[in-house]
Structures are given as structure tokens and as C-alpha cells.
Automatic annotation (TrEMBL):
Pfam families: Response_reg, Trans_reg_C. It comes from Streptomyces alkaliterrae. The keyword Cytoplasm applies. Gene3D superfamilies: 3.40.50.2300, 6.10.250.690, Winged helix-like DNA-binding domain superfamily/Winged helix DNA-binding domain. It is found in: Cytoplasm. This is Transcriptional regulatory protein KdpE. Keywords: Cytoplasm, DNA-binding, Phosphoprotein, Transcription, Transcription regulation, Two-component regulatory system.
């Protein structure tokens, strides 16, 4: 690892916090820990972690509320670690702005792999492709400058939202399959997680479409994939 990354671990189970801290520090991460949501939000603001690992069952507030509050001011990747296993709970967390979701009990190797993937998604990748500027009546998407404007106002996207947007825009109107999107944005291990796509496409539409329920630019081809139309 060329530079140390800082991870904020938020969980009210001391044994899980201890196990994560030991494993992360052994792999040269800097680690901060919090046992409740209020402390987590304060540490996120003060310490500026590169990734947050967040349990949903916190003593003072639900973890989904922590995600919502954090998303008011930061794009830091948030990896949920929770005993809640239903699809509805997963979608609720992703919809609030989480980047990934791991259920307890979990394997440490899988969690660390997902953490590395979250770090990679958040880091600016060297771009060897041609810069792309897309202008529509209401949207301006500058892939080279990594800026999006809607109706003249800057729109803030999370790293995951940006990556998804970039893959679709660079496809130039061509259909991008669900499997390809999941592989390019999240990685090969996520090719069956189609609910991730549904949630994140809904977020892009809310932020960038004039009428999210009748999208003009972010088009779904049912059962096949998605495409971006100017």
C-alpha cells in the first residue's frame, strides 16, 4: 500500500470493533472507532476517514440515519456491516447512500476485499480515454473535470454514483448490460447484485432528471441493462 488509508469502524459490539481494528491495523490501515452514531458523525467530520464501516443497530440512532446525515456533507464510501439480512433493509441502506452491504456473520477476507474495492472506487483513476463533455438542455456532464451541473447548479455525486454515470455516458447511447455495469462499478464479485443497480439508478435520476419517474436520459431496458440518452 503506497499510502495509509484511514478507516472509521462504527459498531456497538466491542468484540467486533476489536477484531476489525486488529485486522485493519495489521494491514496498515489507520483506524478510528465509535460505538454510537453521534460519535461516528463527529469522528467522520474531525478525522476525515477514507472509508466508514458502519453497523446499523446503534444505541442512539439507526445506522441509516447516520448514512443520511453523513451524505449531507461527505462522499466518503460507507460499507454497512449488519445482522439485518432482508432485501428491504439492504435497499434502505443503499438508498440512503451506502456503497456496499455485508451481513453478519461475515468472513474477514470478504469484508477486507470489499473494503479495498471501496477504497479503489473513491480514488481518482488515471484516465487514458478521451475527455467527454455532454451538454443537454438541462444537464452538463464533464467527465474530464469530473463535474456535473443541472440547470446551472453543481450536483454532488458520491464516488459510486459518479462511476456509474461515467460508464453509461462513455457508452455513447449503447446499452450497457446489468452484469457489465456491476462488474465495472463494483467488481466481479457483484454480478448478481442487481438491486444495487436499481437503487443507484434511482439516485442518479433523482439528482439529474427533471422528472425521475419519467426519465429522459437514464433509460432502463427491462431485464437487459441501462443506457444514457442525450
Amino acid at each position: 500500500m503506497t499510502s495509509r488509508h484511514r478507516v472509521l469502524v462504527v459498531d456497538d459490539e466491542p468484540q467486533i470493533v476489536r477484531a476489525l481494528a486488529i485486522n485493519l491495523r495489521a494491514r496498515e490501515y489507520d483506524v478510528d472507532t465509535a460505538g454510537d452514531g453521534a460519535t461516528a458523525l463527529k469522528l467522520a467530520a474531525d478525522r476525515r476517514p477514507d472509508v466508514i464501516i458502519l453497523d446499523l443497530g446503534l444505541p442512539d440512532m439507526d445506522g441509516v440515519e447516520v448514512i443520511r446525515r453523513a451524505r449531507d456533507w461527505t462522499r466518503v464510501p460507507i460499507l454497512v456491516l449488519s445482522a439485518r439480512q432482508t432485501s428491504d433493509e439492504k435497499v434502505k441502506a443503499l438508498d440512503a447512500g451506502a456503497d456496499d452491504y455485508v451481513t453478519k456473520p461475515f468472513g474477514m477476507d470478504e469484508l477486507l476485499a470489499r473494503l479495498r474495492a471501496a477504497v479503489r472506487r473513491a480514488e481518482p483513476a488515471p484516465d487514458t480515454s478521451e475527455p467527454v463533455l455532454v451538454e443537454t438542455e438541462r444537464l452538463s456532464i464533464d467527465l474530464g473535470a469530473k463535474k456535473v451541473r443541472r440547470d446551472g447548479a453543481d450536483v454532488r455525486l458520491t464516488p459510486t454514483e459518479w462511476h456509474l454515470l461515467e460508464v453509461l455516458v462513455r457508452a455513447g447511447g449503447r446499452l450497457v448490460s446489468q452484469k457489465q455495469l456491476l462488474k465495472e462499478v463494483w467488481g466481479p464479485a457483484y454480478q448478481t447484485e442487481t438491486n444495487y443497480l436499481r437503487v443507484y439508478m434511482a439516485q442518479l435520476r433523482r439528482k439529474l432528471e427533471a422528472d425521475p419517474s419519467h426519465p429522459r436520459h437514464f433509460i432502463t431496458e427491462p431485464g437487459m441493462g441501462y443506457r444514457f440518452e442525450r
